[in-house]
Amino acid sequence: MRSVYASLVFVLVSVPLMGGTTLGVSVDTSLAVLITVDQSGKGDFQRIQDAIDAVPSFNSEQVFILIKPGIYRERVVVPEDKPWITLSGTNATSTIITWSGAWDTLESTTVSILAPDFVGRHLTIQNAYGAGAQAVALSVFGDRVAFYACRMISYQDTLFDISERHYYSNCYIEGATDFIFGNALSFFEKCHIHSTSKSGGAITAQKRSSVDENTGFSFVSCKLTGVKSKSVFLGRPWGPYSRVVYADTYMSNAILPQGWSDWNNAITQRTSFYGEYKCYGSGARNTTRVKWSHQLLTLDEATPFITQTWINGQDWIRSNPTHFKKPSFPLKNEGDGLESLDGY
Ligand SMILES: *[C@@H]1O[C@H](CO)[C@@H](O)[C@H](O)[C@H]1NC(C)=O
Ligand SMILES: *[C@@H]1O[C@H](CO)[C@@H](O)[C@H](O)[C@H]1NC(C)=O
Predict the structure, then answer these.
(1) 10-residue mean pLDDT series, the chain (344 residues)
(2) CA of 297 to the centre of ligand 2 (A)
(3) What's the CATH fold of domain 33-318?
(4) For the chain, what are the domain ranges?
(5) How much is the pTM?
(6) Cβ of 149 below 6 Å from ligand 1
(7) 249, 295, 299, 301: residue to mutate for ligand 2 pocket, most atoms within 8 A of CB
(8) Where are the beta strands (DSSP E) in 149-302?
């Protein structure tokens, strides 16, 4: 998915101080148009999707959508042509987006981010379907997407980390089976990953399919817990060149001693790259790991994986806006946004 378009944005974004650019349109990241969503009717909108639908296509201004506390029972899609949107709750326990859908991974998703330069803050994103089928809470497709202090909750396939570069900071991610999966290049920092599997679950199913793909998941200063001792793998290869590293991470006894699964395909033992660096806790005992996984013993070996440069974060991770203004576009509903899922 990374294209000429993406490299152009990369070059332009990296030049100005905190400015950002999409297709040559300069975006002031310190300033945002403010839209409020409030179920009580005191905001601009009562539904989150209505606020997103009001944002003009190819918006050249940052848009900060503040969502007041409440349980929002709706599917939310941020379409590909609406970059620079932030969805922010007050705190993740009080602003909850929930839906219940299953089987088709994208159609079942509660929140889908197709746009680039998206930020999510202080939200719970839940798929309440429960056990028995794929039921995605959050799908992330767009490039340069970041989530802060969010909770992603489901059972099977919670976080579909599909493509491009993503940053997850201080998030809580819960599930049982392959619950962080996809072919993105992602950095998880200070996240709490909680498994609800009773046996043989897997935290990750990363999908890198060739040696040329620059994708993979890196977890740094995270915490891994689960409901039962020796019940969950660190990862298994959805794609043969699957790449996952955990560093400076606490692992409870929920982690299986062998650590990693080859998903019954011995070839992946040679093609995957599964590593651990300075992890601790009773689930982190490296002597019991499968021989084909990597204990990264030196800082040099670990360095490519353990900072935001893994996702070129130094070029695009942005601070919260400091100034807000009223929208110059009309606050009206332009459709449900769901048609943008067609074709995926
Ligand atoms: C979250 O927000 C709600 C509503 O504003 C508040 O009552 C609650 O104390 C907050 N919780 C935390 C952990 O800040
Ligand atoms: C386990 O980790 C320790 C410290 O990180 C290291 O010294 C040791 O060599 C590792 N053992 C194996 C078998 O990799």
Answers:
(1) 34 36 70 97 96 95 98 97 97 96 81 98 96 91 98 94 98 96 98 97 98 98 98 98 98 98 97 97 93 94 96 96 94 52 38
(2) 7
(3) Pectate Lyase C-like (2.160.20)
(4) 33-318
(5) 0.89
(6) no
(7) 295
(8) 151-153, 159-161, 165-169, 172-175, 177-182, 185-189, 192-195, 201-206, 216-220, 223-226, 232-235, 243-247, 250-251, 273-277, 294-295
